[in-house]
Amino acid sequence: MGTSQEEPASSRAPTAAPPPLLAVEGIEYSYGPLQVLFDVHLDVPTGGRVALLGTNGAGKSTLLRVVAGLLSPAAGTVRLRGEDITSLPPEQRVRRGMTLVEGGRAMFPSVSVRDNLCMGAYPLPKGAPEIEQRLEEALDLFPVLRAKLGQPAGTLSGGEQQMVALGRALLAGPDLLLVDEVSLGLAPVVMQEVAAGIDRIVSRGTTLLLVEQSLNVALALAEQAYFMEKGEVRFSGPTGELLERGDLVRSVFFGAGGERR
User: Given 14, 24, 38, 193, which residue has the most CB atoms within 10 angstroms?
Assistant: First the structure.
């Protein structure tokens, strides 16, 4: 019986690359007769930090809502870890590790800060020890909230409310954090504190897809960028390369009109 020889490395089949954590493929969406997304493709690698930038009315927030399951696309596919989740409802996407923080600091203003935070843990069994553990992690990220747990969330400042929204997302234990317009309406000094909290969250291994109007915030938090205009992706690549595209950067700073929602 002859001895087998190891196959030369050059003849071995290449190892298949793992799929991106999030893959958006050919997404189209319309509000009635008005089409706002046209064949949009976007990948977010596991552990990546990706910003979605663009002119006002480009459809960025609409795309994020399609990814989160709040809107159903007319065409295209959303995949999470290679699984087609296009038809899954939002709560099932949360259970698979996807969490959305919408702009405007959406919360229940008459409910306490603690209860607002703990609502994010609804995928966990009631009384699970992970809830208190994650609550402590959220309060470590945003310590200003610790003394205000019993207050109605509506009595907080705008920046504190945004911290509650991010903390609530953290209690869901996300693998993929979707953040829409986190800087909206916040003073620069407050935004720095909120951005630092996001940075600490993703530094622990959470993948980030960030929709932003502020180019400075996006550059501080993201490594890769997509630029959208009129419902189409016009640029994708490292954020440093985006800075070299003066035409696109000017569009972010000087674009006019309202965001298509």
Answer: 24
